[in-house]
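Sat 14:20. Reprocessing the chain from the morning session after the first attempt stalled halfway. Input below, unchanged.
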Amino acid sequence: MSDEPQAPARESILVVEDDEFIARLLRVELAGAGYEVRTATDGLEALEAAFERCPDLILADVMMPNMDGYEMTRRLREDPRTEGVSIIMLTARGVAADKLEGLTAGADDYIVKPFDADELLARIRGVIRRAEYMRSVSPLTGLPGNVRIEDEIEARIAHGLDFALLYLDLDNFKAYSDRYGFVRGDEALRATGRLIRDTAKGVGSSATFVGHIGGDDFVVVSSPEHATVIAEEVIRRFDELAPTLYEPEDAARGFVEAEDRQGKRQRFPLVSVSIGIASTAGRRFSHRAEAVQVATELKNYTKRTPGSSYTLDRRGMGGG
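Finished this time. Tokens:
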């Protein structure tokens, strides 16, 4: 296998402009900056092109025949195939009301013609960067999601940095959601995300990373020396938080009744947190999947023990 890095896929931009000269100018500038460029001459043609293959960004004039940029933007936002596409509007009019109408329709940015090419490229990079960031963030907790989690682990491996991967999973959370519903469940996950973030950032270093895999699964990437301190403090704070998530009578009893996976009515203890910690303190990882597998196995082992607890990867550390 070649050691040469693969070139990343080029971001695609759909230019929507009825002025042939401006469209050609934009194509040359954008292609020269490394973007894949397609063109359309009006809003209707742009909709067809975007529905066929959604671009990373649409750069559209406002005043066009058949369908203007405002209506095109509204329709793009209404269709699930294109609702998340980034849109920058171009117009010869710098009137505040025109900008407001474009932004209200769903545009991400607004540039007045004649435009400076360097400014245009900077705006495009900024809008695409924001969109990539939002796609990689959990909409529930606001924490980085799977893409950024994978990138974080891979970056530490690639640079030969020592790190610990903490995999945190809530116990008995399904019973909690069954008892209180999805809205309360989401509130509990948001509170848990804040607790993990604040604890890990407060106890660890500035390089500590916190992510949300999804559901009741979270990760922390820290230095090996901070891993157990973070785990212990998360457990302490979470065990203080857990009873406050329940109605007083359930918290006092210490359990809720709900159906298990076989449909039988059972008693489930209050939610707790199980943590598996993979670390480079005693081994090296060549790929993120190895670290994730070790942390997952340790987390699953930890879940066999009632209550909140953690298990540290001790392979290669020596001692008992």
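Residues 1-8 have pLDDT under 50 and may be disordered.
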